[in-house]
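Progress against Task 2.4 (sequence-to-structure conversion) is shown through the following example record, which the project officer requested during the mid-term review.
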Amino acid sequence: MVPGFLVLMVASLGALLYGEATGRSWKLVPKMVLSSGFVLVALDHGALESTYGRWILAALILSWIGDLLLGIDRAFLAGLVSFAIAHLAYIAAFVRFGASHTVVVFAGIAVLVVGVVVLRWLRPHLSTTMAPAVTLYVLIIGSMLSAAFGTRQPGLWVPAAMFAVSDVAVARHRFVDPGFINKLLGLPLYFLAQFVLATTVAVEPVLGFR
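Structure tokens generated for the chain above:
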């Protein structure tokens, strides 16, 4: 990653946080610069050279679409769907990487408990339309987390966990208590997670998992 690119990404994150804090109409621009950045990082690291890399790239592109949709009024549900499919692509990538079934099961039990707690917290704030969609989304991201833990690779499960926490921040902002603190926590975690996952596409060819 060249220094100029890194400076651009950090500056874009700062601009995005400033835009969120002040309600600027142009805040979608730095957000999409950052989203384009993690797609470019994956391509630069050889995402097209392995099955694992292509699944990660698909997840990042779907996330790019989700970021765009979440920045458009009345497109939240469409954005949620895009991110849900992105998580399915991540699951496919982690399974391709080599996830232990035993670890996935035990991690899944722990994640399920956390998911139930999150849903019980969110449910009073969800409309009849959003409740099924959010429940399904929580199940999907929980499955993604379990698959990531199953790889037993901190370089995968740490960013996956960061992604999940950022989603909780999004849910809190959207349904429970809107405020800049949600953005201040969620956005850096989300983009850092995506950039880390983008760099992992260089790992699989080395390990011979083409």
